[in-house]
Amino acid sequence: MHKLLIVVINTIGVWLVLVVLLNGKNKRSNRLFSLMVLSMFGWVNFAFLARVVESSELSTIFLKIAWFVTPIFFLLILYFAVDIFAMRPRLGALLKFNSIMCLTLSLVTGFTDLVIHNRVLINDSLAIQYGKLMFPFLIGVFIIILSTIYVVLRGFKSEMSIEERKGITWYVVGLLVFYIANFVFNISLPIFFGATQYYYFGDYSTIILTFVIAYSIIRYEFLGVNVLVSTFLISTIGMFLILDITLLSDSIEERLVKIFIFFMFLIVAVLLIRNILTTISQKERLQQLAQEQKDIIDVMGHEIRTPLTAIVQELNIHKKLTLPKKEDWMAGKVSPEQTQEYLELIFESLETMDKASVTAVSLVKSMLETARLDKNRFELNYSKFDVIPVVRDSVEIMSKTIAPDECKVEFVEPEFEKFEIEADKTRISEAVSALVSNSIKYRDQDKSQPWVKVLVKKVGNNCQITVKDNGIGIAKEDISKLGRKFMRLDSRATGNLKRPGGTGLGLYVVKGIMKHHGGKLIIESEGHGKGSSFTINFPTSRNDAKDIKKNPEN
Fold this sequence. Notes:
By secondary structure, this protein is an alpha+beta fold. It has helices spanning 2-23, 27-52, 56-84, 92-111, 134-155, 162-192, 199-204, 206-220, 229-247, 252-321, 326-330, 336-374, 387-399, 425-441, 506-516, 542-550; strands at residues 116-122, 125-130, 382-386, 408-411, 420-424, 451-459, 462-469, 520-525, 532-539. It has three domains: 2-248, Rhopdopsin 7-helix transmembrane proteins (Up-down Bundle), CATH 1.20.1070; 305-374; 382-550, Heat Shock Protein 90, CATH 3.30.565.10. 31% of the residues are buried. Helix content is 64%, strand content 10%. The protein has a five-stranded mixed sheet. A two-stranded antiparallel sheet has the order 1-2. A hairpin with a 2-residue loop joins strand 1 (116-122) and strand 2 (125-130). The chain contains 16 helices and nine strands.
Protein backbone atom coordinates (compact mmCIF):
# COMPACT_ATOMS: atom_id res chain seq x y z
CA MET A 1 0.00 0.00 0.00
CA HIS A 2 2.81 2.41 0.93
CA LYS A 3 4.64 1.61 -2.30
CA LEU A 4 1.52 2.23 -4.36
CA LEU A 5 0.93 5.64 -2.72
CA ILE A 6 4.55 6.66 -3.32
CA VAL A 7 4.26 5.65 -6.97
CA VAL A 8 1.01 7.62 -7.36
CA ILE A 9 2.58 10.73 -5.78
CA ASN A 10 5.65 10.46 -8.01
CA THR A 11 3.73 9.84 -11.22
CA ILE A 12 1.31 12.72 -10.66
CA GLY A 13 4.25 14.93 -9.70
CA VAL A 14 6.14 14.05 -12.88
CA TRP A 15 3.00 14.69 -14.92
CA LEU A 16 2.56 18.10 -13.28
CA VAL A 17 6.18 19.09 -13.88
CA LEU A 18 6.00 18.06 -17.55
CA VAL A 19 2.71 19.86 -18.16
CA VAL A 20 3.75 23.05 -16.38
CA LEU A 21 7.21 23.33 -17.92
CA LEU A 22 6.02 22.54 -21.45
CA ASN A 23 2.79 24.55 -21.51
CA GLY A 24 3.07 27.30 -18.91
CA LYS A 25 3.35 30.97 -19.84
CA ASN A 26 4.81 32.30 -16.58
CA LYS A 27 8.28 30.76 -16.77
CA ARG A 28 9.52 31.88 -13.34
CA SER A 29 6.42 30.58 -11.53
CA ASN A 30 6.66 27.35 -13.52
CA ARG A 31 10.30 26.84 -12.53
CA LEU A 32 9.51 27.52 -8.87
CA PHE A 33 6.61 25.09 -9.04
CA SER A 34 8.82 22.41 -10.58
CA LEU A 35 11.47 22.88 -7.89
CA MET A 36 8.73 22.69 -5.27
CA VAL A 37 7.52 19.34 -6.66
CA LEU A 38 11.08 17.98 -6.90
CA SER A 39 11.78 18.90 -3.27
CA MET A 40 8.51 17.18 -2.35
CA PHE A 41 9.83 14.06 -4.11
CA GLY A 42 12.97 14.20 -1.96
CA TRP A 43 11.02 14.53 1.27
CA VAL A 44 8.39 11.85 0.61
CA ASN A 45 10.65 9.27 -1.04
CA PHE A 46 13.44 9.40 1.54
CA ALA A 47 10.88 9.28 4.37
CA PHE A 48 9.45 6.16 2.68
CA LEU A 49 12.90 4.59 2.34
CA ALA A 50 13.59 5.29 6.02
CA ARG A 51 10.54 3.16 6.90
CA VAL A 52 11.35 0.18 4.67
CA VAL A 53 15.12 -0.36 5.16
CA GLU A 54 16.20 -2.64 7.96
CA SER A 55 19.45 -0.90 8.87
CA SER A 56 18.95 1.61 11.65
CA GLU A 57 22.00 3.60 10.54
CA LEU A 58 20.85 3.79 6.91
CA SER A 59 17.30 4.61 7.99
CA THR A 60 18.61 7.51 10.09
CA ILE A 61 20.56 8.84 7.10
CA PHE A 62 17.43 8.69 4.95
CA LEU A 63 15.45 10.51 7.66
CA LYS A 64 18.06 13.25 7.85
CA ILE A 65 17.90 13.69 4.06
CA ALA A 66 14.09 13.87 4.18
CA TRP A 67 14.17 16.42 6.98
CA PHE A 68 17.00 18.32 5.25
CA VAL A 69 14.68 18.79 2.25
CA THR A 70 11.60 19.66 4.34
CA PRO A 71 12.45 23.33 5.13
CA ILE A 72 13.49 23.82 1.50
CA PHE A 73 10.12 22.45 0.36
CA PHE A 74 8.23 24.83 2.66
CA LEU A 75 10.44 27.75 1.58
CA LEU A 76 9.73 27.03 -2.10
CA ILE A 77 6.01 27.02 -1.29
CA LEU A 78 6.51 30.52 0.18
CA TYR A 79 8.46 31.74 -2.86
CA PHE A 80 5.85 30.25 -5.16
CA ALA A 81 3.02 32.02 -3.29
CA VAL A 82 4.92 35.33 -3.45
CA ASP A 83 5.43 34.88 -7.18
CA ILE A 84 1.86 33.98 -8.19
CA PHE A 85 0.58 37.02 -6.27
CA ALA A 86 3.34 39.26 -7.75
CA MET A 87 4.44 40.48 -4.30
CA ARG A 88 8.20 39.91 -4.55
CA PRO A 89 9.27 43.61 -4.63
CA ARG A 90 7.38 44.34 -1.40
CA LEU A 91 8.51 41.30 0.58
CA GLY A 92 12.27 41.24 -0.02
CA ALA A 93 13.13 41.38 3.70
CA LEU A 94 10.66 38.62 4.56
CA LEU A 95 12.05 36.33 1.86
CA LYS A 96 15.65 37.01 2.90
CA PHE A 97 14.91 36.23 6.55
CA ASN A 98 13.10 32.97 5.73
CA SER A 99 15.82 31.94 3.26
CA ILE A 100 18.60 32.36 5.86
CA MET A 101 16.54 30.51 8.47
CA CYS A 102 15.74 27.70 6.01
CA LEU A 103 19.41 27.23 5.07
CA THR A 104 20.38 27.09 8.75
CA LEU A 105 17.67 24.53 9.58
CA SER A 106 18.59 22.30 6.63
CA LEU A 107 22.33 22.31 7.37
CA VAL A 108 21.84 21.62 11.09
CA THR A 109 19.40 18.79 10.30
CA GLY A 110 21.44 17.15 7.57
CA PHE A 111 24.92 17.31 9.06
CA THR A 112 24.42 17.07 12.84
CA ASP A 113 22.45 15.00 15.35
CA LEU A 114 20.88 18.07 16.92
CA VAL A 115 17.48 17.60 15.22
CA ILE A 116 17.36 13.85 14.42
CA HIS A 117 19.52 11.69 16.65
CA ASN A 118 18.47 8.18 15.68
CA ARG A 119 15.71 5.96 14.34
CA VAL A 120 13.87 3.65 16.69
CA LEU A 121 11.02 1.15 16.25
CA ILE A 122 7.93 1.21 18.46
CA ASN A 123 5.54 -1.70 17.84
CA ASP A 124 7.13 -2.20 14.42
CA SER A 125 6.41 1.43 13.53
CA LEU A 126 9.12 3.94 12.74
CA ALA A 127 9.78 6.52 15.42
CA ILE A 128 12.45 9.16 15.77
CA GLN A 129 14.76 9.90 18.66
CA TYR A 130 14.91 13.68 18.45
CA GLY A 131 17.87 15.94 19.23
CA LYS A 132 18.09 19.07 21.35
CA LEU A 133 17.13 21.45 18.51
CA MET A 134 13.95 19.65 17.50
CA PHE A 135 11.61 22.34 18.80
CA PRO A 136 13.62 25.24 17.31
CA PHE A 137 13.43 23.33 13.99
CA LEU A 138 9.63 23.07 14.27
CA ILE A 139 9.36 26.74 15.22
CA GLY A 140 11.42 27.71 12.17
CA VAL A 141 9.22 25.66 9.81
CA PHE A 142 6.13 27.09 11.51
CA ILE A 143 7.42 30.64 10.85
CA ILE A 144 7.83 29.80 7.13
CA ILE A 145 4.25 28.43 7.08
CA LEU A 146 2.91 31.57 8.79
CA SER A 147 4.80 33.73 6.26
CA THR A 148 3.15 31.80 3.43
CA ILE A 149 -0.32 32.21 4.96
CA TYR A 150 0.36 35.95 5.37
CA VAL A 151 1.30 36.21 1.67
CA VAL A 152 -1.81 34.30 0.62
CA LEU A 153 -4.13 36.48 2.73
CA ARG A 154 -2.58 39.67 1.34
CA GLY A 155 -2.54 38.34 -2.19
CA PHE A 156 -6.25 37.54 -2.23
CA LYS A 157 -7.01 41.23 -1.71
CA SER A 158 -5.32 42.10 -5.02
CA GLU A 159 -7.09 42.48 -8.35
CA MET A 160 -7.40 39.28 -10.38
CA SER A 161 -9.86 37.71 -12.78
CA ILE A 162 -12.54 35.26 -11.58
CA GLU A 163 -10.80 32.34 -13.31
CA GLU A 164 -7.44 33.24 -11.74
CA ARG A 165 -9.04 33.51 -8.30
CA LYS A 166 -10.73 30.11 -8.67
CA GLY A 167 -7.50 28.44 -9.78
CA ILE A 168 -5.52 29.93 -6.89
CA THR A 169 -8.35 29.11 -4.43
CA TRP A 170 -8.10 25.40 -5.20
CA TYR A 171 -4.32 25.54 -4.76
CA VAL A 172 -4.72 27.32 -1.39
CA VAL A 173 -7.32 24.75 -0.22
CA GLY A 174 -4.93 21.91 -1.07
CA LEU A 175 -2.11 23.74 0.71
CA LEU A 176 -4.16 24.22 3.89
CA VAL A 177 -5.17 20.54 3.95
CA PHE A 178 -1.50 19.64 3.54
CA TYR A 179 -0.46 21.97 6.39
CA ILE A 180 -3.14 20.64 8.75
CA ALA A 181 -2.31 16.99 7.97
CA ASN A 182 1.38 17.63 8.65
CA PHE A 183 0.63 19.39 11.94
CA VAL A 184 -1.58 16.53 13.11
CA PHE A 185 0.27 13.42 11.89
CA ASN A 186 3.91 14.60 11.72
CA ILE A 187 4.05 16.81 14.80
CA SER A 188 1.17 16.54 17.29
CA LEU A 189 0.56 12.77 17.38
CA PRO A 190 4.18 11.47 17.29
CA ILE A 191 5.80 14.19 19.44
CA PHE A 192 3.14 14.94 22.04
CA PHE A 193 1.18 11.65 22.16
CA GLY A 194 3.76 9.08 21.01
CA ALA A 195 1.43 7.81 18.23
CA THR A 196 3.99 7.02 15.53
CA GLN A 197 1.89 4.55 13.51
CA TYR A 198 0.10 7.41 11.70
CA TYR A 199 3.26 9.30 10.79
CA TYR A 200 3.11 8.50 7.08
CA PHE A 201 -0.31 10.16 6.72
CA GLY A 202 1.41 13.53 6.98
CA ASP A 203 3.88 12.65 4.22
CA TYR A 204 1.18 11.22 1.97
CA SER A 205 -1.00 14.30 2.36
CA THR A 206 1.10 15.62 -0.53
CA ILE A 207 -1.07 13.44 -2.79
CA ILE A 208 -4.03 15.72 -1.96
CA LEU A 209 -1.95 18.79 -2.81
CA THR A 210 -0.83 17.33 -6.15
CA PHE A 211 -4.36 16.20 -7.07
CA VAL A 212 -5.79 19.64 -6.29
CA ILE A 213 -3.09 21.43 -8.33
CA ALA A 214 -3.65 19.04 -11.25
CA TYR A 215 -7.40 19.78 -11.13
CA SER A 216 -6.75 23.53 -10.94
CA ILE A 217 -4.47 23.37 -13.98
CA ILE A 218 -6.90 21.34 -16.09
CA ARG A 219 -10.04 23.20 -15.00
CA TYR A 220 -8.88 26.80 -14.57
CA GLU A 221 -5.52 26.98 -16.44
CA PHE A 222 -3.68 27.63 -13.16
CA LEU A 223 -0.17 29.09 -13.74
CA GLY A 224 -1.25 30.07 -17.24
CA VAL A 225 -1.08 26.42 -18.31
CA ASN A 226 -3.32 25.53 -21.24
CA VAL A 227 -3.12 21.74 -21.31
CA LEU A 228 -2.97 20.69 -24.95
CA VAL A 229 -4.43 17.30 -25.87
CA SER A 230 -1.01 16.20 -27.13
CA THR A 231 0.68 17.21 -23.86
CA PHE A 232 -2.01 15.51 -21.80
CA LEU A 233 -1.64 12.25 -23.73
CA ILE A 234 2.17 12.30 -23.65
CA SER A 235 2.22 13.07 -19.91
CA THR A 236 -0.31 10.31 -19.25
CA ILE A 237 1.84 7.83 -21.19
CA GLY A 238 4.78 8.93 -19.04
CA MET A 239 2.75 8.18 -15.89
CA PHE A 240 1.96 4.65 -17.09
CA LEU A 241 5.63 4.06 -17.95
CA ILE A 242 6.60 4.98 -14.37
CA LEU A 243 3.96 2.63 -13.01
CA ASP A 244 5.31 -0.11 -15.26
CA ILE A 245 8.89 0.50 -14.06
CA THR A 246 8.01 0.52 -10.37
CA LEU A 247 5.25 -2.12 -10.12
CA LEU A 248 5.49 -4.48 -13.08
CA SER A 249 9.22 -5.12 -13.44
CA ASP A 250 10.43 -8.59 -12.43
CA SER A 251 14.17 -7.96 -12.38
CA ILE A 252 16.74 -5.21 -12.06
CA GLU A 253 17.85 -5.73 -15.67
CA GLU A 254 14.29 -5.33 -16.94
CA ARG A 255 13.83 -2.23 -14.80
CA LEU A 256 17.05 -0.64 -16.13
CA VAL A 257 15.95 -1.25 -19.74
CA LYS A 258 12.57 0.34 -19.02
CA ILE A 259 14.22 3.32 -17.33
CA PHE A 260 16.38 3.84 -20.44
CA ILE A 261 13.28 3.65 -22.65
CA PHE A 262 11.53 6.10 -20.35
CA PHE A 263 14.31 8.71 -20.64
CA MET A 264 14.38 8.33 -24.42
CA PHE A 265 10.60 8.83 -24.38
CA LEU A 266 11.06 12.03 -22.34
CA ILE A 267 13.56 13.47 -24.83
CA VAL A 268 11.29 12.75 -27.81
CA ALA A 269 8.24 14.06 -25.91
CA VAL A 270 9.94 17.35 -25.01
CA LEU A 271 11.08 17.93 -28.61
CA LEU A 272 7.63 17.07 -29.98
CA ILE A 273 5.71 19.31 -27.60
CA ARG A 274 8.13 22.22 -28.09
CA ASN A 275 7.61 21.94 -31.84
CA ILE A 276 3.84 21.94 -31.38
CA LEU A 277 3.98 24.95 -29.04
CA THR A 278 6.28 26.85 -31.43
CA THR A 279 3.84 26.27 -34.29
CA ILE A 280 0.91 27.43 -32.16
CA SER A 281 2.84 30.49 -30.96
CA GLN A 282 3.73 31.49 -34.53
CA LYS A 283 0.12 31.08 -35.61
CA GLU A 284 -1.12 33.22 -32.72
CA ARG A 285 1.52 35.88 -33.51
CA LEU A 286 0.45 36.02 -37.16
CA GLN A 287 -3.18 36.39 -36.09
CA GLN A 288 -2.18 39.15 -33.67
CA LEU A 289 -0.23 41.01 -36.36
CA ALA A 290 -3.15 40.72 -38.78
CA GLN A 291 -5.52 42.11 -36.16
CA GLU A 292 -3.10 44.94 -35.31
CA GLN A 293 -2.85 45.89 -38.99
CA LYS A 294 -6.63 45.94 -39.22
CA ASP A 295 -6.83 48.06 -36.07
CA ILE A 296 -4.27 50.53 -37.45
CA ILE A 297 -6.19 50.91 -40.71
CA ASP A 298 -9.51 51.30 -38.89
CA VAL A 299 -8.14 53.85 -36.42
CA MET A 300 -6.28 55.93 -38.99
CA GLY A 301 -9.24 55.81 -41.36
CA HIS A 302 -11.66 57.02 -38.73
CA GLU A 303 -9.45 59.59 -37.00
CA ILE A 304 -8.39 61.30 -40.23
CA ARG A 305 -11.52 60.82 -42.33
CA THR A 306 -13.97 62.14 -39.73
CA PRO A 307 -12.63 65.72 -39.39
CA LEU A 308 -11.87 65.99 -43.12
CA THR A 309 -15.43 64.91 -43.98
CA ALA A 310 -16.78 67.57 -41.63
CA ILE A 311 -14.65 70.24 -43.35
CA VAL A 312 -15.84 69.26 -46.84
CA GLN A 313 -19.47 69.22 -45.74
CA GLU A 314 -19.15 72.59 -44.05
CA LEU A 315 -17.49 74.21 -47.08
CA ASN A 316 -20.15 72.80 -49.41
CA ILE A 317 -22.91 74.22 -47.24
CA HIS A 318 -21.18 77.61 -47.14
CA LYS A 319 -20.74 77.54 -50.89
CA LYS A 320 -24.37 76.76 -51.62
CA LEU A 321 -26.09 78.88 -48.99
CA THR A 322 -23.91 81.85 -48.21
CA LEU A 323 -21.31 82.69 -50.82
CA PRO A 324 -22.57 85.35 -53.29
CA LYS A 325 -22.38 84.93 -57.01
CA LYS A 326 -19.42 86.27 -58.93
CA GLU A 327 -21.51 88.90 -60.73
CA ASP A 328 -22.79 90.26 -57.41
CA TRP A 329 -19.21 90.78 -56.25
CA MET A 330 -18.36 92.51 -59.53
CA ALA A 331 -21.42 94.77 -59.34
CA GLY A 332 -20.65 95.81 -55.75
CA LYS A 333 -23.90 94.33 -54.41
CA VAL A 334 -22.14 92.70 -51.45
CA SER A 335 -22.05 94.89 -48.34
CA PRO A 336 -19.08 95.17 -45.92
CA GLU A 337 -21.19 93.38 -43.31
CA GLN A 338 -21.73 90.45 -45.64
CA THR A 339 -18.01 90.35 -46.48
CA GLN A 340 -17.19 90.23 -42.75
CA GLU A 341 -19.65 87.38 -42.30
CA TYR A 342 -18.11 85.41 -45.18
CA LEU A 343 -14.62 85.91 -43.76
CA GLU A 344 -15.71 84.68 -40.33
CA LEU A 345 -17.14 81.55 -41.90
CA ILE A 346 -13.88 80.95 -43.75
CA PHE A 347 -11.89 81.36 -40.50
CA GLU A 348 -14.19 78.86 -38.77
CA SER A 349 -13.46 76.38 -41.53
CA LEU A 350 -9.75 77.02 -41.19
CA GLU A 351 -9.97 76.41 -37.43
CA THR A 352 -11.71 73.10 -38.09
CA MET A 353 -8.99 72.22 -40.58
CA ASP A 354 -6.33 73.17 -38.03
CA LYS A 355 -7.90 70.82 -35.46
CA ALA A 356 -7.96 68.09 -38.08
CA SER A 357 -4.26 68.61 -38.80
CA VAL A 358 -3.48 68.49 -35.06
CA THR A 359 -5.42 65.23 -34.82
CA ALA A 360 -3.53 63.79 -37.79
CA VAL A 361 -0.14 64.85 -36.35
CA SER A 362 -1.05 63.42 -32.95
CA LEU A 363 -2.16 60.19 -34.59
CA VAL A 364 1.04 59.82 -36.60
CA LYS A 365 3.12 60.64 -33.49
CA SER A 366 1.32 57.96 -31.46
CA MET A 367 1.86 55.45 -34.25
CA LEU A 368 5.58 56.26 -34.42
CA GLU A 369 6.00 56.00 -30.65
CA THR A 370 4.17 52.68 -30.66
CA ALA A 371 6.40 51.35 -33.43
CA ARG A 372 9.51 52.40 -31.46
CA LEU A 373 8.22 50.61 -28.37
CA ASP A 374 7.35 47.45 -30.28
CA LYS A 375 10.76 47.31 -31.96
CA ASN A 376 12.75 48.26 -28.83
CA ARG A 377 13.98 51.48 -30.47
CA PHE A 378 12.58 53.72 -27.77
CA GLU A 379 15.46 55.88 -26.53
CA LEU A 380 15.64 58.33 -23.64
CA ASN A 381 17.61 61.57 -23.48
CA TYR A 382 18.35 62.01 -19.80
CA SER A 383 18.92 65.43 -18.29
CA LYS A 384 18.54 67.08 -14.89
CA PHE A 385 15.63 69.49 -14.63
CA ASP A 386 12.98 70.87 -12.30
CA VAL A 387 9.90 68.76 -12.95
CA ILE A 388 7.39 71.24 -11.49
CA PRO A 389 7.47 73.85 -14.31
CA VAL A 390 7.53 71.07 -16.91
CA VAL A 391 4.32 69.57 -15.54
CA ARG A 392 2.78 73.00 -15.03
CA ASP A 393 3.46 73.99 -18.66
CA SER A 394 2.04 70.69 -19.97
CA VAL A 395 -1.14 71.22 -17.97
CA GLU A 396 -1.53 74.83 -19.15
CA ILE A 397 -1.16 73.79 -22.78
CA MET A 398 -3.73 71.02 -22.42
CA SER A 399 -6.13 73.35 -20.55
CA LYS A 400 -6.33 75.53 -23.66
CA THR A 401 -7.71 72.66 -25.72
CA ILE A 402 -11.10 72.91 -24.00
CA ALA A 403 -13.28 75.72 -22.71
CA PRO A 404 -13.18 76.22 -18.91
CA ASP A 405 -16.95 75.78 -18.62
CA GLU A 406 -16.67 72.36 -20.32
CA CYS A 407 -13.88 71.10 -18.09
CA LYS A 408 -11.71 72.83 -15.51
CA VAL A 409 -8.08 71.71 -15.88
CA GLU A 410 -5.68 72.83 -13.16
CA PHE A 411 -2.23 72.15 -11.78
CA VAL A 412 -2.17 71.86 -7.99
CA GLU A 413 0.96 73.68 -6.83
CA PRO A 414 3.04 71.48 -4.48
CA GLU A 415 4.26 72.66 -1.09
CA PHE A 416 7.90 72.61 -2.25
CA GLU A 417 9.14 75.15 -4.79
CA LYS A 418 11.64 72.97 -6.64
CA PHE A 419 11.88 69.27 -7.41
CA GLU A 420 14.93 68.35 -9.48
CA ILE A 421 14.94 64.96 -11.18
CA GLU A 422 17.00 63.15 -13.83
CA ALA A 423 14.83 61.87 -16.66
CA ASP A 424 13.81 62.48 -20.27
CA LYS A 425 12.15 65.90 -20.05
CA THR A 426 10.27 65.58 -23.34
CA ARG A 427 8.94 62.09 -22.55
CA ILE A 428 7.73 63.07 -19.08
CA SER A 429 5.92 66.08 -20.56
CA GLU A 430 4.45 63.82 -23.22
CA ALA A 431 3.21 61.35 -20.61
CA VAL A 432 1.55 64.10 -18.54
CA SER A 433 -0.12 65.59 -21.63
CA ALA A 434 -1.41 62.17 -22.68
CA LEU A 435 -2.94 61.51 -19.25
CA VAL A 436 -4.56 64.95 -19.07
CA SER A 437 -5.90 64.55 -22.61
CA ASN A 438 -7.33 61.18 -21.64
CA SER A 439 -9.12 62.63 -18.60
CA ILE A 440 -10.54 65.48 -20.69
CA LYS A 441 -11.88 63.08 -23.31
CA TYR A 442 -13.55 60.88 -20.72
CA ARG A 443 -15.07 63.68 -18.64
CA ASP A 444 -18.59 63.22 -17.33
CA GLN A 445 -20.66 65.72 -19.29
CA ASP A 446 -23.67 65.25 -17.02
CA LYS A 447 -21.81 66.78 -14.08
CA SER A 448 -22.17 70.51 -13.49
CA GLN A 449 -18.41 71.06 -13.38
CA PRO A 450 -16.11 68.38 -14.81
CA TRP A 451 -12.56 68.86 -13.54
CA VAL A 452 -9.05 67.48 -13.96
CA LYS A 453 -6.35 68.04 -11.34
CA VAL A 454 -2.63 67.30 -11.64
CA LEU A 455 -0.39 66.81 -8.58
CA VAL A 456 3.34 66.27 -8.13
CA LYS A 457 4.72 64.45 -5.06
CA LYS A 458 8.02 63.17 -3.70
CA VAL A 459 7.71 59.54 -2.63
CA GLY A 460 11.03 58.31 -1.29
CA ASN A 461 13.47 58.30 -4.21
CA ASN A 462 10.64 58.48 -6.72
CA CYS A 463 8.74 61.22 -8.48
CA GLN A 464 4.99 60.70 -8.52
CA ILE A 465 2.72 62.64 -10.90
CA THR A 466 -1.01 62.03 -10.53
CA VAL A 467 -3.82 63.11 -12.87
CA LYS A 468 -7.18 62.91 -11.09
CA ASP A 469 -10.62 63.59 -12.53
CA ASN A 470 -14.30 63.31 -11.67
CA GLY A 471 -15.06 61.72 -15.03
CA ILE A 472 -16.99 58.63 -16.05
CA GLY A 473 -14.73 56.29 -14.08
CA ILE A 474 -13.66 52.73 -14.85
CA ALA A 475 -15.13 49.41 -13.74
CA LYS A 476 -12.66 47.63 -11.44
CA GLU A 477 -12.56 44.54 -13.63
CA ASP A 478 -11.54 46.72 -16.62
CA ILE A 479 -8.59 48.51 -14.98
CA SER A 480 -6.13 45.70 -15.80
CA LYS A 481 -7.11 45.91 -19.50
CA LEU A 482 -6.00 49.51 -19.89
CA GLY A 483 -2.55 50.17 -21.28
CA ARG A 484 -2.86 47.54 -23.99
CA LYS A 485 -2.48 48.53 -27.61
CA PHE A 486 -5.67 49.92 -29.24
CA MET A 487 -7.61 49.32 -26.02
CA ARG A 488 -10.50 51.73 -25.47
CA LEU A 489 -13.16 50.63 -23.04
CA ASP A 490 -16.83 50.83 -23.97
CA SER A 491 -18.17 53.58 -21.75
CA ARG A 492 -21.72 53.51 -23.09
CA ALA A 493 -22.79 51.86 -19.85
CA THR A 494 -22.72 55.28 -18.21
CA GLY A 495 -25.12 56.65 -20.79
CA ASN A 496 -23.57 60.10 -20.73
CA LEU A 497 -20.51 60.04 -22.95
CA LYS A 498 -20.29 60.72 -26.64
CA ARG A 499 -17.59 58.88 -28.58
CA PRO A 500 -14.36 60.43 -27.23
CA GLY A 501 -12.18 59.62 -30.21
CA GLY A 502 -8.54 58.72 -29.89
CA THR A 503 -6.40 55.83 -31.03
CA GLY A 504 -6.31 53.70 -27.93
CA LEU A 505 -2.53 54.17 -27.92
CA GLY A 506 -2.13 56.97 -25.35
CA LEU A 507 -1.92 54.81 -22.22
CA TYR A 508 0.13 52.22 -24.09
CA VAL A 509 2.75 54.87 -24.88
CA VAL A 510 2.67 56.24 -21.31
CA LYS A 511 3.17 52.72 -19.97
CA GLY A 512 6.15 52.32 -22.33
CA ILE A 513 7.67 55.62 -21.23
CA MET A 514 7.43 54.52 -17.61
CA LYS A 515 8.90 51.10 -18.36
CA HIS A 516 11.97 52.70 -19.93
CA HIS A 517 12.30 55.04 -16.93
CA GLY A 518 12.17 52.09 -14.52
CA GLY A 519 8.77 53.29 -13.33
CA LYS A 520 5.15 52.25 -13.67
CA LEU A 521 1.69 53.52 -14.53
CA ILE A 522 -0.90 53.06 -11.77
CA ILE A 523 -4.60 53.30 -12.67
CA GLU A 524 -7.26 53.56 -9.96
CA SER A 525 -11.04 54.05 -9.96
CA GLU A 526 -13.92 53.20 -7.66
CA GLY A 527 -16.17 52.37 -10.62
CA HIS A 528 -18.46 53.99 -13.17
CA GLY A 529 -19.33 57.59 -12.41
CA LYS A 530 -16.74 57.89 -9.62
CA GLY A 531 -13.80 59.41 -11.47
CA SER A 532 -10.34 58.03 -12.10
CA SER A 533 -6.74 58.52 -11.04
CA PHE A 534 -3.73 57.96 -13.31
CA THR A 535 -0.32 58.03 -11.64
CA ILE A 536 3.16 57.77 -13.12
CA ASN A 537 5.77 56.78 -10.55
CA PHE A 538 9.44 56.67 -11.57
CA PRO A 539 12.95 57.04 -10.03
CA THR A 540 14.39 60.52 -9.73
CA SER A 541 17.86 59.40 -10.84
CA ARG A 542 19.17 57.59 -13.88
CA ASN A 543 21.22 55.13 -11.81
CA ASP A 544 18.17 54.02 -9.81
CA ALA A 545 16.25 53.53 -13.06
CA LYS A 546 19.06 51.36 -14.43
CA ASP A 547 19.09 49.20 -11.29
CA ILE A 548 15.34 48.67 -11.46
CA LYS A 549 15.42 47.76 -15.15
CA LYS A 550 18.23 45.27 -14.52
CA ASN A 551 16.41 43.73 -11.55
CA PRO A 552 12.68 44.30 -12.15
CA GLU A 553 11.78 41.84 -9.38
CA ASN A 554 13.32 44.12 -6.77
